[in-house]
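Note to self: the last two entries modelled the partners one at a time, which told us nothing about the interface. This time every component goes in together.
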Amino acid sequence: MSENDLKQEVTDKYSLRGRVFSRLREDILSGKYEEGEELREVAIGEELGVSRTPVREAFRQLELEGLIRIVPNKGAYVTGISAKDVKDIYMIRSRLEGLAARWATEHITDEQLEEMEENVYLAKFHAEKGHLEQLAELDNRFHEIMYEASGSKMLEHQLKDFHQYVIRVRKKTLSSARGPKSNLEHEGIMEAIKARDPELSEKLAHEHIINAYENLVKNGFA
Amino acid sequence: MSENDLKQEVTDKYSLRGRVFSRLREDILSGKYEEGEELREVAIGEELGVSRTPVREAFRQLELEGLIRIVPNKGAYVTGISAKDVKDIYMIRSRLEGLAARWATEHITDEQLEEMEENVYLAKFHAEKGHLEQLAELDNRFHEIMYEASGSKMLEHQLKDFHQYVIRVRKKTLSSARGPKSNLEHEGIMEAIKARDPELSEKLAHEHIINAYENLVKNGFA
DNA sequence: CTGTGTATTATTGTATACAATCAAACATTT
DNA sequence: AAATGTTTGATTGTATACAATAATACACAG
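The predicted structure of the combined assembly is written out below.
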């Protein structure tokens, strides 16, 4: 719910521009458009059945989201992320996720905690079955719950912005099978939150992201 | 230099849209347009002598920057920042500035270190003279140097995004005279960087932002 | 007088027409 | 043949015209 809360502000999915924005966003993150590829206004417009105007406006937004780079009078190009960028992102996230965990410890509601428990429980099931797809989905959701539980729109916004990069990186590394271990760490964070121990939850959430990054490196990411 | 580096990508100051964007940004941050005020496309366009098209595109960008909020089919409104938002921003910044200081310790160049020393030295002078305007300017610049010295475009981008909020808050509190104390803390951070002590520089930079926030609260910010 | 429905008007959303810019192919000169 | 100038086509930048939407004022029924 709160997922859409923020997004709708920005994407406005009932306007053409909003639909173009969402669609392009998806297509870039899913890898349909590759790094460095040029996006032409008319081509995109024709493909989606709209004029250049909404496409251009969507471009401006995608640029600020960091997904494309617009060179004046030339064109729009899908941005690449360097290995250094990825490392920086994970390090920044490690700090912010720690903060989110701390705040979640202080503000989480009973409903949110319940969803978290359900999430961890379900993930354990899918981990045993080897359902990587569902596992990735639950992983994403776990973090979102924590962002929402932090009670900070500002922090939630920041972290969700980063999340798109994480998705892109996952596509590249073909979602390495860290699932089970990741879920164990989620459980640890959750227990710290339940125990109302902000110090511990922050520490664990911080380490969780560091571990995720190290796994990424181990699995051959540049 | 690197200041414009990032900004130009986004603002493109030689296009009408870029000029509209920069101008509106300034006007909102300077307080010309107040919180909640509605911005009409034609009115802004007429004032700046351009059509609605570049204005609309600028609006989309300002929305993602968090300066205005666009309600579909209704209008664009200057966003307000709540006391809670300000607190969250400072807490988030405290983490990220700490990280910036740590990375700066590892990557700072001789030139950057020199500019930092000059900055602290000059600030000491202006602090004695009571030149609040220059002091604020040098304060901003100190942080920018640190961002640049961090060697991380990602982190630099994040922190500069937040900076606009800091400017807005300053306008509200009429820049309380924390100048001298702040500069002393800058000096401490710089010394830690010079001593190549990432642990210490991170800790000091972190505390620096916390102190800035507490001063804000003490000086009557809600 | 109150509440509801309708017309009016202002404003945003989208499409299109025109201007400016850039890149590449071609021609021209040395 | 190499370097430079020029034309051409494609693409973005901007302005304007038209469509859709929302808020307001007003009329009218109860």
